[in-house]
């Protein structure tokens, strides 16, 4: 992998808008400017709006944390976003996702054993990413399980983490040397 294309400006080189964005991220639940933030800080108004959306979908969504991580991992796999996968694989395990589910997604496979809630999240996200829409059945299943707010929160999660994946991929964000990278998926 080539060198990362975006560098985080030093604190004294940041514009007032960049400083406000950085301070908000550092003061929030993330606590640091890792991941997509060395990219997003170069458009601090958009970056701050994005980081606030990201804080909501990651920490405050109506979706339970393991299911949020499932949606994030499906999105990271779709984009083959190495850094996003690396970070959220660990967060998914900590949230209680079965390692077999994570491994199947890494291989581009439907996990063989999913709870009902995991299935409705996986099915919705997989359809949305693969076809750019979802079936009436997939929509109804998420609505029944999590309400209309859950449907919107799930759409927002996929959208935000697609933005993050694209930022990380364009940046060529590095994973630690000992991390196992995702293999490319076969094109259909």
Task: Give keywords.
mainly alpha; globular; AhpD-like; 188 residues; 8 helices; 2 domains
Question: Can you tell me about this structure?
Answer:
The model has no long low-confidence stretch (mean pLDDT 96). Helix 4 runs parallel beside helix 7, helix 4 crosses helix 8 and helix 7 packs across helix 8. The protein has 2 domains: 45 residues, no CATH class; 109 residues, AhpD-like, CATH 1.20.1290.10. 37% of the residues are buried. 65% of the residues lie in helices and 0% in strands. The chain is globular, with a radius of gyration of 17 Å. It contains 8 helices and no strands.
Summarize the topology.
Blueprint: H1 16-27, H2 37-40, H3 44-60, H4 65-79, H5 82-95, H6 99-106, H7 116-131, H8 136-171
Short description:
The protein is an all-alpha fold. It has helices at residues 16-27, 37-40, 44-60, 65-79, 82-95, 99-106, 116-131, 136-171.
Question: How much strand?
Answer: under 5%
**Taking Cα atoms only, what radius of gyration do you get, to the nearest Å?**
17 Å
CATH superfamily of the largest domain: AhpD-like
Task: Count the E strands.
Answer: 0
What is the overall silhouette? globular
Q: How do the helices and strands follow one another from N- to C-terminus?
A: HHHHHHHH
Query: So what's the CATH class of the largest domain?
Result: Mainly Alpha
Please tell me the CATH architecture of the largest domain by its name: Up-down Bundle
Intertermini distance: 25 Å
Average pLDDT level:
96
- Report the biggest beta sheet as strand number plus sense, adding barrel if it closes: none
Class based on secondary structure composition and strand pairing = mainly alpha
Number of helices: 8
Say what the CATH topology of the largest domain is. AhpD-like
Query: How many structural domains in the coordinates?
Result: 2
Poorly predicted tracts of residues: none
Helical content class:
55-70%
């Amino acid at each position: 992998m080539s060198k990362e294309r975006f560098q985080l400006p030093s604190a004294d080189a940041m514009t007032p808008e960049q400083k406000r964005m950085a301070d908000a991220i550092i003061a929030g639940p993330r606590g640091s400017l890792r991941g997509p933030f060395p990219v997003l800080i170069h458009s601090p108004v958009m970056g701050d709006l994005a980081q606030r959306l990201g804080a909501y979908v990651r920490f405050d969504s109506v979706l339970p944390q393991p299911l949020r991580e499932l949606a994030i991992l499906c999105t990271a796999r779709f984009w083959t976003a190495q850094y996003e996968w690396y970070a959220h694989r660990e967060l998914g395990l900590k949230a209680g996702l079965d390692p077999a589910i994570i491994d199947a997604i890494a291989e581009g496979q439907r996990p063989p054993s999913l709870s009902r809630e995991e299935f409705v999240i996986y099915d919705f996200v997989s359809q949305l990413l693969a076809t750019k829409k979802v079936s009436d059945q997939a929509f109804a299943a998420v609505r029944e399980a999590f309400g209309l707010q859950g449907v919107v929160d799930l759409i927002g999660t996929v959208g935000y983490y697609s933005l993050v994946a694209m930022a990380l991929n364009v940046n060529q964000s590095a994973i630690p040397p000992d991390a196992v990278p995702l293999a490319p998926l076969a094109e259909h």
